């Protein structure tokens, strides 16, 4: 499959001559948020203005994306720092078995999964400027409380509420991005804030190495300070974020009226106007989309890989014969490399409209890493394998999220699709908590490695099937466009419209 720029680029706007275009989908909190129709990146209002183009998106990139990135960094850090705390003595001090540790991780994911769809729908009803900061502030408190628990039951209670409060953050941030950015700009932005997850993997190792030196301060072990200090920062950042989150495009204070109109011209208008508020009909329509269920297995498989690595990389490295402190530091390089590669891949994905190809290559990277770990007994090769598996996992995740969101409209349908994708993905997180350690003992993790290798290959297969299905649908839509004009088409079709071209 050649990686050449597809029609539908910002310069291709002539549907009548058969060039490819895309109905850029975005939305605001209310039905009044509108946008443009035409080729990717060219809306009804104003056409392409290079000066305005650079200025407007730069403002969003500088004012919105850093906040979103910090949200997700803190989310991932506070959910997975238990892996660093485990290496620092948490499991021993609380007298936990490997099975009990896995249960503690599983308890996080049950409410996490159950809260994803309701929180995404609540985001639409209440507003992101209130929902997202509230979730962040509350889970910061709970994260800090983990540092003062002295029993296994106390840890379980904290893990439950962390999952409940964090569940909606990633799907919520992806949905929030779609309020401001057209589809052809989404993957780079999703990856930019998701790359903070790989940064959190690197950052948590460095932080944990420093914080565990506080062992004994205040008569508390080093692992407790990991939770207390990181949770306290999350709480303070959550409070400050109430004042910096724009609620919608119309209420974005850093844009002039002219800039707001330009952004509206880049976003999809007709479908969003036709959806007045929340619609259960659109929830049902979302559940009927074949592309959602073709991407469902890759969400599950890739998330199992991602969370397995997120929770167990420090333990895997320690199992290679390194000390606990060295294991914290040596977990940094694979995540740093993953961050860089993910950003490069996102640029390619946006430039060439090749979400599916990037997903396939990413999970094949995971397969290479697991094959290396499985086939070698050299600790250097096994450590090197993490650069492939971690990079693949942290590149696939934002690309799949963007691909899923790109191919559903209007807003409620998209919100549902995003949430269902993450529900399926985080179900893989439950499996991941048991695969490594409980069901597959250290240090070889043989059964787990074989399972994750097979999951990588299956994820690639389903991504291929999704590409083939979407390509077939786009061909059918092209034939329909030859037979009628836009005015002849029934309104309210969303992504079923003949003028809505699916991203491959």
From TrEMBL:
Task: From the record, give the transmembrane residue ranges.
Answer: 130-148, 160-180, 192-212, 224-245, 292-312, 332-349, 356-375, 381-403, 415-436, 448-470
Annotated ranges, domain Major facilitator superfamily (MFS) profile: 64-474
PROSITE patterns given in the database record: MFS
Keywords annotated in UniProt: Membrane, Transmembrane, Transmembrane helix, Transport
Which membrane topology term applies here? Multi-pass membrane protein
Where it sits in the cell: the answer is: Membrane
Q: Where is this region: Disordered?
A: 1-34
Q: Does the keyword Cytoplasm apply?
A: no
A Pfam family reported for this protein in Swiss-Prot or TrEMBL: MFS_1
Q: Does the keyword Membrane apply?
A: yes
Under Gene Ontology molecular function, one entry of this record is:
transmembrane transporter activity
Q: Name one GO cellular component term.
A: membrane
The record's principal subcellular location, in a coarse class, is membrane
Report the protein name in the record: Major facilitator superfamily domain-containing protein
Instruction: Name its species.
Output: Lentinula aciculospora
């Amino acid at each position: 499959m050649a990686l050449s720029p597809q029609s539908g680029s910002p310069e291709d706007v002539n549907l009548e001559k058969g060039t490819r275009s895309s109905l850029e989908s975005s939305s605001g909190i209310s039905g009044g948020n509108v946008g443009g129709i035409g080729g990717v990146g060219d809306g009804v209002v104003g056409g392409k203005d290079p000066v305005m183009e650079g200025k407007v998106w730069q403002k969003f990139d500088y004012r919105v994306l850093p906040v979103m990135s910090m949200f997700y960094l803190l989310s991932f850090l506070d959910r997975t720092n238990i892996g660093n705390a485990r290496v620092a003595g948490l499991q021993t001090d609380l007298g936990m078995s490997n099975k009990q540790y896995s249960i503690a991780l599983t308890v996080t994911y049950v409410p996490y999964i159950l809260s994803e769809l309701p929180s995404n729908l609540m985001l639409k009803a209440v507003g992101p400027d209130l929902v997202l900061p509230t979730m962040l502030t509350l889970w910061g408190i709970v994260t800090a409380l983990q540092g003062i628990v002295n029993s296994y039951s106390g840890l379980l209670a904290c893990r439950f509420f962390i999952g409940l409060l964090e569940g909606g953050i990633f799907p919520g941030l992806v949905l929030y991005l779609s309020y401001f950015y057209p589809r052809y700009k989404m993957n780079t932005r999703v990856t930019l804030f998701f790359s903070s997850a790989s940064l959190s993997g690197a950052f948590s190792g460095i932080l944990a190495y420093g914080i565990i030196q506080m062992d004994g301060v205040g008569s508390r072990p080093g692992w407790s300070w990991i939770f207390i200090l990181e949770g306290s920062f999350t709480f303070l950042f959550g409070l400050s974020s109430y004042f910096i989150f724009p609620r919608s495009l119309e209420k974005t204070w850093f844009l002039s009226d002219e800039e707001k109109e330009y952004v509206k011209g880049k976003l999809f208008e007709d479908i969003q106007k036709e959806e007045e508020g929340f619609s259960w009909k659109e929830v049902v329509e979302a559940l009927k989309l074949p592309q959602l269920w073709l991407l469902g297995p890759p969400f599950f498989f890739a998330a199992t890989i991602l969370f397995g690595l997120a929770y167990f990389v420090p333990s895997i490295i320690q199992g290679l014969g390194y000390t606990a402190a060295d294991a914290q530091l040596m977990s940094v390089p694979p995540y740093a490399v993953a961050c860089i590669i993910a950003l490069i891949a996102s640029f390619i994905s946006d430039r060439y409209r090749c979400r599916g190809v990037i997903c396939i290559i990413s999970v094949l990277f995971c397969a290479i890493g697991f094959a290396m770990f499985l086939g070698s007994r050299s600790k250097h090769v096994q450590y090197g394998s993490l650069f492939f598996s971690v990079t693949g996992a942290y590149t696939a995740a934002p690309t799949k999220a963007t691909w899923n969101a790109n191919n559903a409209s209007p807003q409620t349908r998209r919100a549902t699709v995003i949430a269902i994708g993450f529900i399926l993905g985080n179900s893989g997180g439950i499996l991941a908590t048991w695969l490594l350690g409980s069901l597959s003992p250290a240090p070889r993790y043989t059964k787990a490695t074989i399972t994750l290798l097979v999951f990588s290959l299956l994820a690639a297969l389903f991504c291929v099937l999704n590409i083939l299905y979407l390509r077939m649908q786009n061909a059918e839509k092209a034939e329909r466009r030859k037979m009628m004009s836009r005015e002849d088409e029934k309104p309210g079709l969303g992504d079923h419209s003949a003028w809505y071209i699916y991203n491959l």
